[in-house]
Amino acid sequence: xxxxxxxxxxxxxxxxxxxxxxxxxxxxxxxxxxxxxxxxxxxxxxxxxxxxxxxxxxxxxxxxxxxxxxxxxxxxxxxxxxxxxxxxxxxxxxxxxxxxxxxxxxxxxxxxxxxxxxxxxxxxxxxxxxxxxxxxxxxxxxxxxxxxxxxxxxxxxxxxxxxxxxxxxxxxxxxxxxxxxxxxxxxxxxxxxxxxxxxxxxxxxxxxxxxxxxxxxxxxxxxxxxxxxxxxxxxxxxxxxxxxxxxxxxxxxxxxxxxxxxxxxxxxxxxxxxxxxxxxxxxxxxxxxxxxxxxxxxxxxxxxxxxxxxxxxxxxxxxxxxxxxxxxxxxxxxxxxxxxxxxxxxxxxxxxxxxxxxxxxxxxxxxxxx
Length: 370
Known about the structure:
The protein is α+β, with helices and mostly antiparallel strands. The protein has two domains: 8-129, PAS domain (Beta-Lactamase, 2-Layer Sandwich), CATH 3.30.450; 143-369, Phosphatase 2c, domain 1, CATH 3.60.40. 29% of the residues lie in helices and 30% in strands. The chain contains nine helices and 16 strands. The strands form three sheets. Strands 7, 8, 9, 10, 13 and 14 form a six-stranded mixed beta sheet that branches. A five-stranded antiparallel beta sheet has the order 2-1-5-4-3, with helices on both faces. Strands 6-16-15-11-12 form a five-stranded antiparallel beta sheet, covered by helices on one side. Strand 1 and strand 2 form a beta hairpin. Helix 5 (131-147) packs parallel to helix 6 (198-218).
């Protein structure tokens, strides 16, 4: 039995969001009503016209200044046969407040459509305004920044911290770090990553960070501190499956004791440049088990001049790449720059590991000279 005949023109018009079709030469062949509303033009002004001529009659149209960037993205998709995405920003005067300027933001994705001969026949161009998402992201970033501690000496020891949000993401992730002075010549170093994005993740992050900071001050051993945090996480909506690495440093005994709740292993860089990943005490993320259970911990001796490094997944994970490749890349960077002071080492690691252009995930990094 033959299936129903599909009206692809109707499907195209019903697609969510603003969508247009162009030839590889950037001539419009179709556009849905949402696209026409977004660019503020009629169908007659768009269909059959060349992209750079969109705004010839209206140079003050909201997205006119972005045409060259849109054109470059479309041409990349046509030439490479791969989808191309881009974030766009345009500043315009607030019509309700003369003299006041507002930023508006869009995301665009350009997808090549191939013909029977395997060549690019059309380009599917989708545009979405994300101004409200960006503003919410800025609020979440401000909240997250207020919750994270500033770089500071820990007792007589030196540490460097870095936090890099994903530039192109619409929402902030729940990455966090902390350095906690403990009684005597001791301290705790923590890095964690909450599942989710935006204000909810930032709120969960703040609760977990405060709870773990308090636990590290009064509880002996990182495993026990994570056990207490795990119990608390069961009472916080959105805290399940959070990953955390916790390290207790004792300069009197020259010992690093660590425990991980599903987090990437801390790295210990020796004074000769050798890098050791602390991966002998890893357990599932917070509240991931149906029942509470004790967590493991392990200890390793250090010497003066060694470097402790904690980080979140944005530093090493790449799409379609094995995690071991990222860990090897981190080890190589630490080995090459191990003699640098903490601040320079942090900058060097970020420079070596973060991809050129906009990062696709948030990154937290803590470096402590032992």
